[in-house]
Specification:
The structure is a homodimer. The first copy, chain A, is mainly alpha-helical and about 220 residues long. Chain A folds into two domains: about 1-50; about 50-85 and about 95-215. In chain A, about 70% of the residues lie in helices and about 5% in strands. The first copy, chain A, contains six helices and two strands, in the order αααββααα. The first copy, chain A, has helices at about 1-20, 30-35, 50-80, 105-130, 135-170, 185-215, and strands at about 85-90, 95-100. In chain A, strands 1-2 form a two-stranded antiparallel ribbon. In chain A, a hairpin with a 4-residue loop joins β1 and β2 (about 95-100). In chain A, α4 packs antiparallel against α5 and α5 (about 135-170) runs antiparallel to α6 (about 185-215). The radius of gyration of chain A is 26 Å and the shape is elongated. The two termini of chain A are about 20 Å apart. In chain A, about 40% of the residues are buried. At the A-B interface, α1, α2, α5 and α6 of A face α1, α5 and α6 of B.
């Protein structure tokens, strides 16, 4: 690792120059020396000497939160997409069945959460790059931008589905929309679970944006 | 502040060591000199020498976007809250009337958008502080954090209301929920307008978060 060797080098240089002047070392932070030697990948490690440790810690935390969010998003998508209830009784012409694609809000939910899953899968390599190079501003800006988009997408999916799930549970007498959860009890249970998982994924994405902002700010 | 004095010390040390070695300076960026002079309000202007102009430009843009978002949020709240349609015919026992508080999603919409309006009003002074001091990291972190919360709140309000407005427009034959827009046409028009305004406010908040991230990143 070139960062480590740079640091050692810097410490030595500083010690000798200070010894020559007879000064006591206050705090070891010589930016010039670090800049010259550790100008690495795309010039992104220029500030590698300052606050690298705590930024790397946050980047690792970011990676863990990203994995948890992926789990929540997959759970939400899978639960909603496999929801399919057929009632045990039927008439001569019609069998009562409920599935997620009967309601447009649930279709949107499945599509949006699937997009979130794919994005999370694709962003994991970028998150790993961000652990190796904690000062890669370009990668971090890309992550904060797309994470924000995913906050909006998952919030929209979760809340529109929540509005419909709520309606399915309690109905609305003013608009004369009756509750369907007496008949399709299992369907309502599963969609409610999917909505909860989607809200967890939303919280995960919000946390990722905040972490990225903390990493972006000056040390 | 001990960090500043350290940097000055380091810069000087470095200069002398370079002069002693007979090397030409590579990049003229002595942070110590800037730090010593522009140490302003709460130590927030420590990096005021670099990129101050373009950051101030973005901060002014942030202020303008904030005002536009406030207009959109007020429009959304007012349109939804004043929506009240009474049908011209009535029976002996009942008069047909539709107002926003007949539907829980619209109640949530009004409350959430009102919160967004109040927040925007309160955040304008902080935004002005941020124009005067473009490097105020603490104020900027506060803004990005609350702006993100407002992105989520407005998205949730707009999309849950949109799900209900869509249902009111087209109904759903699978769940046996009939459209109410044939009867309450004016009500549907106004709520749709409020939802569109809320989505505009959401875009405004998203833009504010991105602008804050650009300001936060290192120059």
């Amino acid at each position: 690792m070139s960062t480590d060797s740079t640091r050692i080098d810097v410490a030595e240089t500083e010690m000798t120059s200070r010894e020559a002047k007879g000064k006591a070392p206050l705090l070891a932070d010589p930016p010039g020396q670090v800049d010259r030697k550790s100008r690495g990948f795309m010039g992104l490690r220029r500030h590698a000497g300052r606050g690298g440790g705590y930024k790397r810690g946050i980047a690792i935390f970011d990676f863990v939160v990203r994995l948890c969010t992926l789990v929540a998003a997959i759970a939400a998508t899978a639960t909603m997409a496999t929801t399919d209830e057929t009632l045990p009784f039927f008439t001569q012409f019609f069998q009562f069945q409920a599935s997620y694609d009967d309601l447009p809000a649930f279709q949107f939910f499945v599509v949006a959460m699937a997009i979130a899953c794919v994005y999370l899968g694709l962003s994991i390599p970028l998150s790993i790059v961000s652990i190796i190079r904690p000062h890669a501003v370009a990668a971090r800006m890309l992550l904060i931008f797309f994470d924000l988009g995913m906050v909006v997408l998952t919030t929209a999916a979760a809340s529109s589905a929540a509005a419909i799930v709520y309606l399915a549970h309690v109905g609305n007498s003013n608009a004369n929309w009756l509750s369907i959860c007496q008949q399709f009890n299992n369907f309502c249970q599963r969609t409610s679970g999917a909505v909860v998982a989607a809200f967890l994924a939303m919280l995960g994405f919000m946390f990722l944006v905040v972490l990225s902002a903390v990493i972006l700010k000056k040390p």
